[in-house]
Amino acid sequence: MPRTKIDSSRIKGIYDELSPSYDRREALLDLFFIKRHRKAIFSQARGRVLEVGVGTGKNFRYYSHKCEITGIDLSPGMLQIAEKRSTRLDQAIHLQVMDAHELQFADRSFDTVTSSLTLCTLVDPILALSEMARVVRSNGTILLLEHGRSQHRMLSRWLDWLAPHYVENYGCHPNRNILSLVQAANLQILDVRRFLFGILYAIECKPQRRAKALRRL
Fold first, then answer.
1. Domain housing 103
2. Does residue 2 form part of some domain?
3. Which of 15, 37, 134, 191 could tie 75 with a disulfide, CB 3.0–4.6 Å?
4. Residue 76 lies in a domain
Protein backbone atom coordinates (compact mmCIF):
# COMPACT_ATOMS: atom_id res chain seq x y z
CA MET A 1 0.00 0.00 0.00
CA PRO A 2 1.33 3.52 -0.86
CA ARG A 3 1.90 5.79 2.11
CA THR A 4 -0.50 8.68 2.63
CA LYS A 5 1.81 10.39 5.15
CA ILE A 6 5.46 11.22 4.69
CA ASP A 7 8.06 12.91 6.88
CA SER A 8 10.57 15.65 6.11
CA SER A 9 13.57 13.32 5.93
CA ARG A 10 11.84 11.26 3.24
CA ILE A 11 10.95 14.42 1.28
CA LYS A 12 14.56 15.60 1.50
CA GLY A 13 15.74 12.26 0.12
CA ILE A 14 13.24 12.33 -2.73
CA TYR A 15 14.28 15.79 -3.91
CA ASP A 16 17.98 15.15 -3.48
CA GLU A 17 17.49 12.18 -5.80
CA LEU A 18 15.30 14.12 -8.25
CA SER A 19 17.46 17.27 -8.33
CA PRO A 20 19.69 16.41 -11.34
CA SER A 21 16.64 15.76 -13.56
CA TYR A 22 14.05 18.00 -11.89
CA ASP A 23 14.14 20.85 -14.40
CA ARG A 24 13.92 18.46 -17.36
CA ARG A 25 10.94 16.69 -15.83
CA GLU A 26 9.12 19.99 -15.30
CA ALA A 27 10.16 21.69 -18.56
CA LEU A 28 6.95 21.29 -20.59
CA LEU A 29 4.66 21.99 -17.65
CA ASP A 30 6.64 25.13 -16.84
CA LEU A 31 6.80 26.32 -20.45
CA PHE A 32 3.10 25.98 -21.25
CA PHE A 33 1.34 26.47 -17.93
CA ILE A 34 3.44 27.98 -15.14
CA LYS A 35 6.24 30.19 -16.49
CA ARG A 36 4.08 33.24 -17.26
CA HIS A 37 2.46 33.05 -13.83
CA ARG A 38 5.86 32.91 -12.13
CA LYS A 39 6.78 36.16 -13.88
CA ALA A 40 3.47 37.85 -13.09
CA ILE A 41 3.55 37.21 -9.36
CA PHE A 42 7.24 37.19 -8.42
CA SER A 43 8.09 40.36 -10.32
CA GLN A 44 6.01 42.06 -7.58
CA ALA A 45 8.58 41.16 -4.90
CA ARG A 46 10.35 44.12 -3.32
CA GLY A 47 13.14 44.83 -0.85
CA ARG A 48 14.57 42.03 1.23
CA VAL A 49 13.07 38.80 -0.14
CA LEU A 50 12.90 35.30 1.35
CA GLU A 51 11.97 32.46 -0.99
CA VAL A 52 10.80 29.38 0.90
CA GLY A 53 11.31 26.09 -0.93
CA VAL A 54 13.53 27.73 -3.51
CA GLY A 55 14.17 24.44 -5.31
CA THR A 56 16.35 24.84 -8.39
CA GLY A 57 15.86 28.62 -8.48
CA LYS A 58 13.36 28.87 -11.32
CA ASN A 59 11.99 32.14 -9.94
CA PHE A 60 15.33 33.97 -9.78
CA ARG A 61 15.04 35.60 -13.19
CA TYR A 62 11.74 37.23 -12.27
CA TYR A 63 12.96 39.16 -9.24
CA SER A 64 14.06 42.76 -9.60
CA HIS A 65 17.84 43.15 -9.38
CA LYS A 66 17.13 45.69 -6.62
CA CYS A 67 15.92 42.83 -4.39
CA GLU A 68 18.15 41.27 -1.76
CA ILE A 69 17.27 37.58 -2.04
CA THR A 70 17.63 34.73 0.43
CA GLY A 71 16.49 31.25 -0.59
CA ILE A 72 15.98 28.23 1.63
CA ASP A 73 15.25 24.60 0.84
CA LEU A 74 15.30 21.29 2.67
CA SER A 75 17.26 19.60 -0.16
CA PRO A 76 20.99 20.31 -0.60
CA GLY A 77 20.76 18.72 -4.05
CA MET A 78 18.18 21.24 -5.21
CA LEU A 79 20.21 24.09 -3.74
CA GLN A 80 23.27 23.02 -5.73
CA ILE A 81 21.26 23.53 -8.94
CA ALA A 82 19.93 26.86 -7.64
CA GLU A 83 23.49 28.03 -6.90
CA LYS A 84 24.54 27.26 -10.47
CA ARG A 85 21.50 29.12 -11.81
CA SER A 86 22.21 32.20 -9.71
CA THR A 87 25.80 32.23 -11.00
CA ARG A 88 24.63 32.06 -14.63
CA LEU A 89 22.21 34.92 -14.01
CA ASP A 90 24.91 36.91 -12.20
CA GLN A 91 22.71 37.37 -9.14
CA ALA A 92 23.96 37.53 -5.57
CA ILE A 93 21.56 35.19 -3.79
CA HIS A 94 22.15 33.75 -0.33
CA LEU A 95 21.10 30.09 -0.17
CA GLN A 96 20.69 27.95 2.95
CA VAL A 97 19.57 24.44 3.82
CA MET A 98 16.63 25.03 6.16
CA ASP A 99 13.30 23.53 7.15
CA ALA A 100 10.31 25.72 6.23
CA HIS A 101 8.60 24.65 9.46
CA GLU A 102 11.27 26.36 11.58
CA LEU A 103 12.75 29.38 9.80
CA GLN A 104 15.99 30.53 11.38
CA PHE A 105 15.27 34.25 11.00
CA ALA A 106 14.12 36.94 13.39
CA ASP A 107 10.55 38.20 13.39
CA ARG A 108 9.74 40.73 10.65
CA SER A 109 13.05 40.26 8.82
CA PHE A 110 11.79 40.43 5.21
CA ASP A 111 9.77 42.81 3.05
CA THR A 112 8.50 39.96 0.85
CA VAL A 113 8.23 36.22 1.36
CA THR A 114 7.62 34.03 -1.69
CA SER A 115 7.00 30.37 -2.35
CA SER A 116 6.06 28.32 -5.40
CA LEU A 117 4.75 24.76 -5.69
CA THR A 118 5.92 24.08 -2.14
CA LEU A 119 2.84 23.74 0.08
CA CYS A 120 2.06 20.37 -1.50
CA THR A 121 5.25 18.81 -0.09
CA LEU A 122 5.27 20.27 3.41
CA VAL A 123 4.46 18.01 6.35
CA ASP A 124 2.63 20.87 8.11
CA PRO A 125 1.81 23.58 5.56
CA ILE A 126 -0.13 25.68 8.09
CA LEU A 127 2.88 25.85 10.41
CA ALA A 128 5.12 26.79 7.46
CA LEU A 129 2.73 29.54 6.37
CA SER A 130 2.64 30.81 9.96
CA GLU A 131 6.44 30.94 9.91
CA MET A 132 6.29 32.99 6.70
CA ALA A 133 3.89 35.36 8.44
CA ARG A 134 6.25 35.64 11.40
CA VAL A 135 9.32 36.62 9.37
CA VAL A 136 7.62 39.07 6.99
CA ARG A 137 7.26 42.69 8.06
CA SER A 138 3.82 43.88 9.13
CA ASN A 139 3.49 45.96 5.96
CA GLY A 140 5.11 43.29 3.78
CA THR A 141 3.56 40.72 1.46
CA ILE A 142 3.60 36.98 0.97
CA LEU A 143 3.42 35.86 -2.67
CA LEU A 144 2.41 32.26 -3.39
CA LEU A 145 2.15 30.27 -6.61
CA GLU A 146 0.75 26.88 -5.67
CA HIS A 147 -1.20 23.95 -7.06
CA GLY A 148 -3.98 22.11 -5.31
CA ARG A 149 -7.62 21.19 -5.23
CA SER A 150 -9.87 22.38 -8.06
CA GLN A 151 -13.34 23.81 -7.64
CA HIS A 152 -14.47 21.23 -10.22
CA ARG A 153 -15.71 18.12 -8.42
CA MET A 154 -14.64 15.52 -10.98
CA LEU A 155 -11.17 17.01 -11.30
CA SER A 156 -10.76 17.02 -7.52
CA ARG A 157 -11.82 13.37 -7.38
CA TRP A 158 -9.09 12.61 -9.93
CA LEU A 159 -6.57 14.46 -7.75
CA ASP A 160 -7.73 12.41 -4.76
CA TRP A 161 -7.12 9.24 -6.79
CA LEU A 162 -3.63 10.41 -7.78
CA ALA A 163 -2.65 11.54 -4.28
CA PRO A 164 -1.28 8.25 -2.81
CA HIS A 165 1.02 7.72 -5.81
CA TYR A 166 2.29 11.30 -5.75
CA VAL A 167 2.84 11.28 -1.99
CA GLU A 168 4.82 8.04 -2.19
CA ASN A 169 6.98 8.98 -5.17
CA TYR A 170 7.28 12.77 -4.99
CA GLY A 171 6.21 13.74 -1.47
CA CYS A 172 3.47 15.77 -3.17
CA HIS A 173 -0.15 16.10 -2.01
CA PRO A 174 -1.89 17.31 -5.21
CA ASN A 175 -5.34 17.58 -3.61
CA ARG A 176 -4.71 20.07 -0.79
CA ASN A 177 -7.14 22.98 -0.45
CA ILE A 178 -4.70 25.86 -0.77
CA LEU A 179 -7.08 28.67 0.18
CA SER A 180 -8.15 26.82 3.32
CA LEU A 181 -4.51 26.39 4.34
CA VAL A 182 -3.79 30.10 3.85
CA GLN A 183 -6.86 31.08 5.86
CA ALA A 184 -6.06 28.56 8.62
CA ALA A 185 -2.65 30.22 8.99
CA ASN A 186 -4.48 33.50 9.71
CA LEU A 187 -3.22 35.24 6.60
CA GLN A 188 -5.27 37.98 4.99
CA ILE A 189 -5.76 37.27 1.30
CA LEU A 190 -5.33 40.43 -0.77
CA ASP A 191 -5.67 38.85 -4.21
CA VAL A 192 -6.20 35.37 -5.59
CA ARG A 193 -6.26 34.20 -9.19
CA ARG A 194 -6.82 30.62 -10.32
CA PHE A 195 -5.72 29.01 -13.56
CA LEU A 196 -5.57 25.61 -15.24
CA PHE A 197 -9.14 24.59 -14.31
CA GLY A 198 -8.64 26.00 -10.81
CA ILE A 199 -5.64 23.81 -9.96
CA LEU A 200 -3.05 26.61 -10.04
CA TYR A 201 -3.32 29.43 -7.49
CA ALA A 202 -1.57 32.82 -7.54
CA ILE A 203 -2.08 34.40 -4.12
CA GLU A 204 -0.99 37.69 -2.58
CA CYS A 205 -1.52 37.83 1.16
CA LYS A 206 -0.21 39.43 4.33
CA PRO A 207 -0.06 38.57 8.03
CA GLN A 208 -2.92 39.39 10.31
CA ARG A 209 -2.15 41.07 13.64
CA ARG A 210 -2.47 37.70 15.39
CA ALA A 211 0.12 36.00 13.14
CA LYS A 212 2.90 36.28 15.74
CA ALA A 213 0.91 34.15 18.17
CA LEU A 214 0.86 31.35 15.58
CA ARG A 215 4.64 30.94 15.54
CA ARG A 216 4.39 27.49 17.09
CA LEU A 217 1.05 25.75 16.53
1. 8-214
2. no
3. 15
4. yes
pLDDT tens digit sequence for 26-50: 887 887 789 999 999 999 999 999 9
Distance CA 114, CA 189 (A): 14
| Alpha-carbon distance values, 181 to 20, 120, 189 (Å) | 31, 11, 11
Strand-pairing partners, residue 95, are: 71
Q: Answer whether 187's CB lies under 8 Å from 208's CB.
A: yes
Q: Are 111 and 46 in contact (CB under 8 A)?
A: yes
DSSP 1-33: ---S---HHHHHHHHHHHGGGHHHHHHHHIIII
- Amino acid 186 reads N
Strand arrangement of the beta sheet that strand 200-207 belongs to: 93-97, 68-73, 48-52, 110-116, 136-147, 200-207, 187-195
3 located within any domain: no
Instruction: List pLDDT tens digits, range 42-96.
Output: 999 999 999 999 999 999 999 999 999 999 999 999 999 999 999 999 888 999 9
Q: Residue 172 sits in a domain of what CATH number?
A: 3.40.50.150
d(C-alpha 108, C-alpha 203), whole Å: 20
3-class SS shares of the chain: helix, strand, coil, % to 5: 45, 25, 30
Pairing type for strands 110-116 and 68-73 reads: unpaired
